[in-house]
Amino acid sequence: MEQQPRVLIISLGSMRDAIYTIPLIATLKRNDYLVDVLTAEKGFEIFNTNPYVKRVQLVPLEQWLNKMPYFGIFEDLSETIAKIKKKNYSMVIDCEQSLRSLFLFANSGAKRRLTYSNAKGFSSLGGNEFIDKDPKLSNYNVHQVERNLNFARYLGFDANIVDFALPEISYGAKLKIDKFFSFFTQEQPLIVLAPNMGLGETSWHPKNWINLANNISEKYNVVIIGEFEDKSLANKMINKNLLNLCNQTSFDDLRYIFNNCKMVISNNTEVSAIAWAMKHVKVVTISTSLPPAKYNPYNLTNENCYKTLIGSLGCQPCNSTYCQNSTYKCSHLPTVESVLNEIR
Hints:
A 6-stranded parallel β-sheet has the order 3-2-1-4-5-6. The protein has a 6-stranded parallel β-sheet with strand order 9-8-7-10-11-12, sandwiched between helices. 35% of the residues lie in helices and 15% in strands. By secondary structure, it is α/β, with parallel strands linked by helices.
């Protein structure tokens, strides 16, 4: 019996990056490939126990960075490369395409190393097959999911099915979040807000979030999620139907929250991607400076569950956290009214 080909996917970025890699992995699995993934801490939560993935190998990038200057990094990298080479992969696909993937990619020992010729961080130097030799397989102005699926198209596979599977939600997450949900005194539809103040001055303006929360908290229960930077904003939203869970939720917790909500309104593409992968949740992503065509969720069906709201400024989107004009007008767009129209 012919042995199934084994492929390694390199995805070392955010949860969003990991989620947008899953359709490629699903396509390879449907075509009888065994798929392993090389990932960092954030991606590990997406790929571990994922039904499409055979094996996950962790590269603790965050741990290494926290130790810097860390002189043992070269020894750790050498051990990781030795483990990769032992697997004798027939193919390695670099979905990361950055300087941090270059060394691992180039030294994987695989005969076929697929990437784009214009990949960032000189990572294309590690490849020996460049899929964008076919002009139809470009990575310019293409959504990240499609950019990854181009690898399947290059291999001659049908990539029209955009499929997702996430690990099962743990019982512990259900217990934890149900305890938080007991805060709500009324049974009302739940809306989740994800401000992402970590974007700095290109974040949707704090006054907009406060105004939005005030306008919906009478008819809806509202949960605010995010990191430490979002917590101070959430503390300014005082309402009996508003629950502040900033800096308190894991990946598992978020998915259980999304399972129980009507809508996610987000200025955070990672949160939007997680909600998107849940499939049944309406996601409204607010774009100020980031290009939605590349990173925001898009419709898999005609149900119009995924919507991007962005202003009409000539400089949008600039894909930067710094305003060249020093005005940051994009932080005031879209209007609160346009977001409310998506809820009504």
